[in-house]
Amino acid sequence: MMFFPILLVILLFMFFNDNHGGRRYDDYREDRGRAKEILDRRFAEGEISEEEYLRRRSMLRER
């Protein structure tokens, strides 16, 4: 008997939750931006070659 009111509250919360339980497009764009910053830094510090940098950068663009 107490199950239905709890279920209703959970469903209402899910409905009015801003991202509806998933990630928003902006979150993915931010992740990609952070990945590019890390890639740029690694290339600038000489950790990866130009070839590797270009390959990984093109992979990020395809996502």
UniProtKB/TrEMBL annotation:
It comes from Youngiibacter fragilis 232.1. Residues 37-57 form the SHOCT domain. It comes from the Bacteria. It holds the Pfam family SHOCT. This is Membrane protein.
